[in-house]
Design goal:
single chain; about 625 residues; mainly beta; five-stranded mixed sheet; 7 helices; 36 strands; about 55% strand; globular
Length: about 625
């Protein structure tokens, strides 16, 4: 308890707030409908899986934030680098798991970057203006979603058509460090066709990524620029068939420094092409869905050591049937095919490619006198390491339509990337690598009280990963185990129509279990991740037009590793606990079609560190408008 008091004093916690607060309690009501938990619409009261929804209204109040900053405010998620320089790399930790253990979906279709060592999607590629809402599914989910879903799945649902034949949306934001973000789009709805097209531009002069401890070295600023285009179309080709093609393009570039505490003139750029289609056919007692996604990624780095290029291709095709067997019992059967290709002709195996074929089956009982049950299994065949099987069992029981008790047991896996298997030998590539495999346990309770004005969710979890891929003896091998556990507590309170309060607490700890030279060298290894995180929110709808909010988030003490470029020695360093206080205000005009807003971050100008030796901004502010016509 003493640690919690140091992190965030009790009065500050419940006087704090953020832009999501007004709508946040709605995301925890048991009648909220989600897609990601089962791949078809289901109420939260009918699934034992742990799902958080960042609603459309929350997104509308987040145009002063990046995608990383929105995600790091959610219970159980930390995005390291979210509040650092905008161009700095971002690492997402879901329940303390490493960045590569969370699968990112765009409209339900996985995206992957085979050109990177871990294959994780770069959060800098996607602007908030192109997002409708986000669903966060926690726990190992490889039975429904395949490789990489060890910690969970984040499904980013993009903006779609409006309600009339032609509509316009756009906005602009300007603020600290000469930062500008602007977007413009058109959308429409007819009896046959829906469409949405959006362009977004972002630029900032930024700050120096490296920390100048002398305050006299005049480190240069490291800027960031991004261009993004998104287009999607929905065609109703008859009474039962709907086809939705889409296209996304993102290109960003910027500067980065040589190392911790070290200025530099390095530059980088990254390009993402993502296209595909989703088709849905309605049956008398179910649906057939087919989707295909193609991702091409290209990155370039120019440093004092030379110029490096990385290119990759990812294909994912899937078809699945959802069928109502009898009342309240659903069967889902599907198959997925994925290919990962590294485009590099200098490798021993030129342009190496791997593929995964995985049929799966799931059966669900939905609210049978309060009981909901899901059983699923997936067979995965990888072109290199062979076969693996994953499963999930999800159980929940709803009492008096108000108390939901739930438990989940599931397994997951992460296939070694193409770079791990066939990349440059100086990166330690090893074609004999096996997949990393996990077992996940979670259980908890969700309930409402005080006429459902108070919503509470408490969850405990345990995750065990074996066959960790580690760099040992100048080569990647499967050698270690990772064991993590933790607890999440969320509470939302809406005392009146004008006030909303939300608070959350997250505890996570983990150890890597390893043996070196016959000795047990296990140790705590959740670098840059705090054991304790507290977030407090309060929002006030002062009038129909005016909304005010504050948010406070406290992170406990963390560890990091510092590599000294002069001595080539590594050492563990401590990162101090800190609290950030942010404020948001918006005013609606033209019956809500126009929003004027201001977003202030770190209003107490707190000095803090996300990555040892790297800089973070002090107090910043931006303001702008958002219009939907």
């Amino acid at each position: 308890m003493s640690m919690i008091k140091k992190l965030l004093p009790f009065p500050v916690l419940f006087a704090a707030m953020q832009s999501q607060a007004q709508d946040s309690t709605k995301t925890k009501q048991l009648d909220e409908v989600v897609i990601t938990a089962t791949k078809y619409p289901v109420k939260l009261s009918q699934t034992g899986k742990v799902v958080t929804v960042v609603t459309h209204e929350q997104i509308e109040k987040s145009h002063g934030k990046s995608l990383s900053q929105i995600l790091t405010e959610q219970t159980g998620i930390l995005v390291n680098g979210a509040n650092s320089n905008p161009g700095k790399d971002k690492s997402l930790y879901l329940r303390g798991a490493s960045n590569d253990y969370t699968l990112i979906l765009l409209d339900g279709i996985p995206v992957n970057d085979p050109s990177g060592s871990g294959g994780a999607f770069d959060l800098r590629s996607f602007p908030v203006d192109q997002i409708d809402h986000i669903e966060i599914l926690k726990g190992s989910q490889s039975t429904l979603y395949g490789s990489d879903a060890i910690a969970g799945v984040i499904n980013i649902i993009s903006r779609k058509a409006g309600k009339k034949p032609f509509g316009f949306n756009g906005g602009a934001t300007y603020g600290s460090f000469n930062s500008f973000n602007g977007s413009a789009g058109v959308n429409g709805h007819t009896n046959i066709v829906d469409y949405n097209i959006n362009y977004n531009y972002e630029h900032t002069d930024g700050i120096s990524e490296a920390l100048d401890t002398t305050h006299r070295a005049n480190f240069d600023k490291d800027g960031f620029t991004r261009h993004s285009i998104q287009g999607n179309l929905t065609v109703r080709a008859g009474k039962h068939l709907k086809i939705s093609p889409y296209y996304r393009y993102s290109f960003f570039d910027g500067n980065f420094d040589a190392d911790a505490f070290t200025d530099g003139g390095s530059i980088f750029n990254s390009m993402l092409n993502n296209t595909g289609a989703i088709a849905t056919y309605t049956l008398p007692h179910g649906t057939i869905t087919a989707n295909y996604g193609y991702t091409y990624s290209k990155r370039k780095y120019v440093t004092d050591w030379g110029t490096s290029f990385f290119r990759g291709q990812f294909n994912s095709g899937e078809i699945y049937l959802v069928h109502d067997l009898i009342e309240k019992v659903k069967l889902m059967a599907g198959a997925n095919y994925q290919t990962y290709r590294l485009l590099d002709t200098t490798l021993a195996k030129k342009n190496p490619q791997v593929n995964i074929v995985s049929p799966y089956l799931s059966m669900s009982v939905l609210d049978l006198d309060g009981l909901s049950l899901e059983l699923g299994g997936r067979y995965n065949h990888h072109s290199e390491f062979g076969d693996r099987f994953t499963y999930n069992v999800s159980l929940s029981y709803l009492v008096a339509n108000n108390y939901k008790f739930f438990a989940n047991v599931s397994s997951g896996f992460k296939a070694p990337t193409v770079t791990d298997l066939f990349g440059p030998t100086f990166y330690g590539s090893n074609p004999e690598l096996k997949p990393e495999e996990s077992n996940n346990l979670e259980a908890g309770v969700q309930f409402a009280a005080i006429d459902k004005k108070l919503q509470v969710t408490a969850t405990g979890f345990y995750r065990d990963i074996k066959n960790l891929i580690a760099y040992v003896g100048n080569r990647l091998i499967n050698v270690d185990k990772q064991k993590d556990k933790g607890f999440e507590l969320e509470a939302g309170f809406t005392p009146t129509d004008k006030w909303t309060v939300k608070a959350s607490y997250m505890y996570v700890t983990g150890d890597i279990h390893q043996t070196r030279n016959g000795k047990d060298t296990s140790y705590y290894n959740l670098l840059r991740r705090p054991k304790h995180t507290i977030t407090g929110t309060v929002g006030y709808q002062a009038t129909k037009q005016l909304y005010l909010a504050l948010t406070a988030q406290s992170l406990g003490r963390r560890n990091d590793i510092f590599f000294d470029p002069n001595t080539f020695a590594s050492s563990t360093v401590d990162l101090k606990a800190y609290t950030l206080l942010n404020a948001y205000a918006e005013y609606k005009l033209l019956d809500g079609k126009l929003r004027l807003f201001a977003d202030a971050k770190n209003i107490t100008d707190t000095k803090y560190t996300e990555v040892y030796g790297y800089n973070t901004p002090g107090f910043t502010i931006n303001g702008g408008f958002r219009i939907n016509m």
